[in-house]
Prior knowledge:
There is one protein chain. This protein has a five-stranded parallel β-sheet with strand order 2-1-4-3-5, sandwiched between helices. The protein has helices at residues 25-32, 49-63, 79-88, 106-111, 125-143; strands at residues 10-16, 37-43, 66-75, 94-98, 114-116. The protein is of the alpha/beta class. It is globular and about 45 Å long. The chain contains five helices and five strands. The longest helix has 19 residues, at 125-143.
Amino acid sequence: MEGKPPRGMKLTIISIAKIPKNDLAREYIRRFESSWAFEELFIKPSQNKVLDEQRLLKTIDKKNAFFVALDEKGNNFTSIAFADFLKAHEETPIIFGIGGADGWDEQVKTRANCLLSLSQMTLPHALARLFLCEQLYRAYTLLKNLPYHRA
């Protein structure tokens, strides 16, 4: 992580899930959203997984963004490597997709510019979202040289 920190990332998280009621992830989002443009969208799951995913893909295509689909078989990053990954893509809006309970169909995996694994274990949606938001905040502190990451 050399050079200047990113000016202002443009990050979006799109989740195929209901809007959370008890939201621990919001605390991490609050910490970086004033410096990085941040948006969060929720696609309420229906009985039709394909339709839900098509709605997600339409949103991604409208935003002309680099799409990172969370998938247990995706790439693993250390926290520092994840910060470097974000810095390398700072000029392009990034959308992180968190799928529904049944994971992604092949059309989403094919469209993804990157598959990202938060764990080789299957995580419930709320925990995956919390983990992602904490890692985004950790990357933010690494790139801004703020005291948080202690590894």
